Amino acid sequence: MTVAAERIERLHDLARAAARDGEDDRARRYVRRARRIAERNRLSLPERFKRFSCDACDAYLVPGRNARVRTRSGHVVVACDCGELARHPY
Ligand SMILES: [Zn+2]
Predict the structure, then answer these.
(1) 40 CA to middle of ligand 1, Å?
(2) Using CA atoms, how far apart are residues 50 and 68, in angstroms rounded to an integer?
(3) Distance from the CA of 15 to the center of ligand 1, in angstroms?
(4) I need a labelling partner for 6 at 20 to 30 A (CA). Which of 36, 39, 43, 90 fits?
(5) Domain count of the chain?
(6) Is 90 exceeded by the pLDDT of residue 15?
(7) What is the pLDDT of residue 72?
(8) Cα(38) to centroid(ligand 1), Å
(9) Rounded distance from Cα 25 to ligand 1 centre (Å)
(10) Structural domain that includes position 32
(11) CB–CB of 58/32 below 8 Å?
């Protein structure tokens, strides 16, 4: 794994921990930092990162806390508290 990919992994873990502690702003900063590193290094974000971060407001999503998850025919719909919906096939 490259250094950049490792940093993204670590930021993902930090964002998840912060979001679970209710530190949404801190989680958002980690999400943004990881996105920037990915961009700069032309990496795509890991699947779990994409699934648990909001494209609109950069929140790290914790189902039941700041996001609702519903299953629709063939995909999962994740709704962020900001109103953004993300669909993921499963
Ligand atoms: Zn959002």
Answers:
(1) 23
(2) 15
(3) 14
(4) 90
(5) 1
(6) yes
(7) 86
(8) 19
(9) 12
(10) 3-89
(11) yes
